[in-house]
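Re: your question from the hallway

Yes, I did run it. Sequences:
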Amino acid sequence: MIKTEDLRTAVSGALKQIKKQKDVIDAEVFASWNDLITIRLNYTSDIPCNGIHEPKSIQSYGLGILATFKRGNRVETGFGSVTNDLTKEGVLDALEKAKRNRVYDPDFKTLPEPAGKPALTNYHDKRVMEISGSDSVDLGWKALNGALKTLHDGGHNKTIIIGGDVTILRERMAIKTTKGIDDFDETTSLTANITAMIENKNVKGTGWSMDTHFATFKPGEAGREAAESAMRTIGGRRIKSGKHNVIFGNQPLTDIASNVLVPSLDLSSVNSSNTPFLGKLGQEIASRNLNIYDDGSIKGETGSKKITCEGVPTGRTDLVMNGRLVGFLSDNYFSKKFKNNLYNPISRNGFRYSAGGRDYKNKPGISPTNVIIEGNRETTRDSLLKQVNNGVYIGRVWYTYAINGLAMGDFTSTIIADSFLIKDGKIASPLKPNTIRINTNINHILNNIIGITKKKRSTLVWGSREVMIAPEIAVSNVQLDNITGFLA
Amino acid sequence: MKPRIEILDTLREHIFKTVSTYYKSLSDCKYVDVRLGISEFKSATSENGESKDVTDDYDASFGIRVIAGEMSSWGFYGQSLGKNDLKIKEITTLIIKGINTSYERAMANAEKKQEFKKSADSLTEVRLAKIKVCQDTVPADFEIDPRKVSLQKVLKTCVDASRQMKELDPSVHYAATGIRTGITRELFCSSEGANIDQTLPLTQGVVYVSAQKGESSPEVCYDYVGDLKGWEIIEGKNCYNSSFLDFALERTRDTIELSGAEFLKTGKGEVIVVTDPHFNTLLVHEIVGHPTESDRILKMETAYAGRSWLFKNMDENQVGKRIASPLVNAFSDPTVMGYGYYKYDAEGTPAKRIEVIKNGILNTFLNGRENAATLEQEPNGSMRATASSMVPIVRMTNTAFGPGKKDPKKIIKEVKDGYYIVSHRIPSISESRENFRISAKKVYKIENGKLVKLYRGGGIMANSKEFLMSIDAVGNDFKMYPIPNCGKGQPMQVMRVGNGGPTLRGKARLAGC
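Structure:
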């Protein structure tokens, strides 16, 4: 394990070395250590299994240099990195690569300038930083036990499937630049995403727990929640194809936001003309009840960071305010490219994420942190149910994709669990899983909002890194199509 | 000086010796394997005729699997490697440390499994089906060595293509290209005595274009060309028989044409659809490849990529049953060229062709050693990982619909009223792969055997079995295409696979905007 002090010493030493180079104009030195531990659950009551399939981890550390070089009248940029090496030789090696890899990119302006003080300090958990192999394995078994005990207590012993994972991410980074940025960050996060299924009843339930500290992390509760949700949806019914009023629960809203909405709200999508919101800055794109913003400085949220991977303090970036498009997520490169007299994007989302953490091998790109979706007139779930009156409560969807590309806004997904019919303003019978495909468009969702709950939940979906702080949202006239009749 | 893949010549026997001997010193340690890979690559990207990024670098990592404990369990550890680690003393120390970490996890896991066994009797010891333990060296096969292509040439090819794409028409808002060419060498050594050294080149180009006419939505296209070959891929020896520049310009012309086309409307009932080989590449990937992966069969992907409608349980499943028209065959074959090519999988199992669907009857599943043991099948060598530092999982190889005998022109000519679905775009599949919606780049209306009108924003949706059963014509125009970005696993692993097929004719519902 590499200490933060080692990373700080390395970036300071590196910058001293770089300043001796005559052809370097500016440089940004980023060093990081990451450890991603995954405890994967696989319990099947009727098939031989391991329970916890594979406790595993991927670890990496190293240093990356993004530098600008003078060549004639032009300024060229280059990036180079080294792995498992924070020595002077390593720095020179990375710098040599940056020189070798330099190009003239007219859209690159300058490296970021220092920008105020971070809101978050010392928000990681030392206990997670020092977690042992057996303690991490134990967290997986706690999640499994939470689900299994609940199902057994409910009288369900056969055709049970329990899957998902407990994931522990530990990150350390330091950054120093010729522009005066000199900072570091340490983060810890723990997530449990559990799925429980009683296959002969054709029901599936989802539970999750997310935290930054070991003491308050509850993987067993995530398992219990998944099992209870599965049991609650026994006896599901089909519905007819057509337009229905629906409530999207926390997970479906997160899935739609992570895969369709938020990718359309960043400047790289604007750059490639791949967003339905092209040319709509300042215009109304949604119900006036809706606000969306990104905030990486919320204490206790697993998407939070003290600083970005460009050394900029995290904070709030408004995207949609009172239904109006007011901003896009950005990193330093795109904020400077798109800056004009009317719009000055702030680069609060420049991160170097890869599967394993804040990756010294990557140049910065745009990533969301915690995305908050909220209403101006928020309500309770009961009130939302009354407003919908008759419709469908959607608790979990799967494989949400912008089926015709982000620019067109069309998306589709299937309802796989945790869902119910709404009758006379109340939750009625469960909806049979895997029998409905949603076929709609993001513009339809944004412009047909019936109501938004006050109660929100931090939610993460498979394959995404950002956290959605998601309410439940009711939308009118969503196209739902009945599928898979051949399995009925 | 960056490390070269030849450094493994020096390290190979030391790694093999360490793996063969060290595990014996660990109590109850039953199996160890190590994969250590190093790749050298060059890459470049360009937008609208401007250079954006170039890289000339290497990447190295290793991953270690251990089975240990009284009630045998897995433990895994992976990490990145730097230049200084690729020395005999240093790598030996790191591998021993990695084995110890994996072993500690496996032992802790085994202890807990034993404890839980009282309340969960399906918990069992890890068993690996037996394979032929191999020692082999597999050299790379290419015409133009990726390592001998200059970085400037890679960049210039990208810049020229994106500039010409942008200049093709004023409706082109954005044109981007990327090329990566390199070579990867990976060692696989196991405590059973496997000592395999495989080297594979990879060359891939990607194009991205956005075009807009008037107030309509921009039409966006991205597509890939690539294979496990050298720079000759970029010069035209690829599945399109087209240079990267011509491929890029062709995609741009298509996008310009589509940006002015009418949007397809969603249909109410089934219609006759003729699907071309490029569309069937994604179709076979989603409705044949994925649902026949044995980890889905055994419900191990329930929380992530889903289960499979082909297998309810050991007694109720579709093996040996008709799931498609008798005209339909499908196979998975890592021994032929394509993105899923290899001689040994990531467990050291020799690669072989699998007949997945034979004359419409489901035959078998893709597996690895553990799943093969559970399903009491022969291991068929379908385990791969994105990088050596990641755990291997069951993956498609070159998985495709088999060729038929019919001329594809005749397949269209016979249609009085239908649609021709051309080139895949984006898929959305239901949880057990029993239903799909897949979008196409182009949809043509067929009237009296002729293509009469082009639509954009369309595709098809259907229940998988009903579509497969409806197929009444299979073309003789078999093609295999690269799919570079198949996501699976936790943490997510993005894998390249080969998929393909011939022209097919069946019935599905139109899915539009």
